[in-house]
Amino acid sequence: MADLDKIKFKFWDDTGTVKSLIARWQPQGCKSEKDYENSLYDFLHRELPDIQVTKQYQKGRVRTDLLVSDRVIVELKIHLRSKANYQRLLGQLAELKQWPGSIIVLLIGDTDPNLSKSLRAYVEDWTDDYFILFPKVIVIEK
Questions:
Q1: Buried b (16+ CB within 10 A) or exposed e, 91-125
Q2: Per-residue pLDDT tens for 33-51?
Q3: Which of 53, 66, 86, 140 has its CA 20 to 30 A from that of 14?
Q4: CATH code of the domain containing 94
Q5: Structural domain total, the chain
Q6: Is the pLDDT of residue 129 over 50?
């Protein structure tokens, strides 16, 4: 399956490939956001062996958790329950708005449903005619 994912990523659906890999990812024994980040990093390296995966990618003033081949950013948030952490995430996303690739926000654990809804509404505002089929920001809950 890794070869098909690699081809799919390189030639036609980089974001969809990462999204489907996240769906298959089964983290074990993770307690902190850093544990989840390391687990996903290792999993993506195994599944996409010829694709560069970078931890703690810096873009301007913002540091993101993972960057996959200079095309897909993955930002993990564990137990997003506080308004302060939500506002911080919105600030990170605002800094990344001009970035040309895709962004996957991965919400892990106990996420406040109202914050999840608000986040989804916020990123929907980024959708223009081109991004209807290929959204700039995808929110995934795991």
A1: ebbeebeebebbbbbbbbeebbeebbeebeebbee
A2: 999 999 999 999 999 988 9
A3: 86
A4: 3.40.1350.10
A5: 1
A6: no
- Dihedral pair phi/psi, residue 54, rounded to 5°: -120, 130
Using DSSP's 3-state secondary structure scheme, residue 142 falls into: coil
Six-digit token pair at 107? 């919400």
What is the DSSP pairing of strand 102-108 with strand 137-141? parallel
Cβ count within 10 A of residue 54? 15
7 Cβ contact partners less than 8 Å away, ≥ 6 residues apart: none
Closest CA to 90 of 70, 71, 75, 72: 75
Domain that holds residue 122: 2-141
- Identity of the amino acid at 84: A
